[in-house]
Amino acid sequence: MRDFPTKEDVLLTLYVELMQLRCFLIKWVEVFDARPRERFVAIAEINAILFPHPYSLGLIALVANVAARASAEVKQRMTEISEDFHRVRRVV
Question: Rounded to 5 degrees, what angle do the CA atoms 85, 72, 69 make?
Fold first, then answer.
């Protein structure tokens, strides 16, 4: 069991883990032997499953006052996964 210093750390850690899963799945689509349309549909499905509602965990986690209260370690993890996601998104 992990220990979190703040409730914001819990929320942002969940967000980071969700984004890590999203990046992993999108990287898998990148090597998927399919037509561009099929890849597009696969990425749309990934997003629909992980972020089914506009007010999902991701949006809540990015609210400024939540991030401001998180620990430096969690903020760093958020920055890293955000950079990774933007790199993955450009490739696919």
Answer: 100
Q: How deeply is 61 buried, as exposed, middle or buried, from its count of CB atoms within 10 A (0-12, 13-18, 19+)?
A: buried
Which residues lie closer than 8 Å to 17 by C-beta, 6 or more apart?
none
pLDDT digits (tens, 9 = 90+) for 12-67: 888 889 889 989 998 888 888 889 899 889 988 988 888 777 667 667 766 767 88
Task: Please compute, for residue 39, the number of CA atoms within 13 A of its CA located in the half-sphere on the CB side.
Answer: 14
Q: Are 76 and 13 in contact (CB under 8 A)?
A: no
**What's this model's pTM, rounded to 2 decimal places?**
0.75
- Residue 20 is which amino acid? Q
Distance CA 19, CA 54 (A): 15
One-letter amino acid for residue 5 of the chain: P
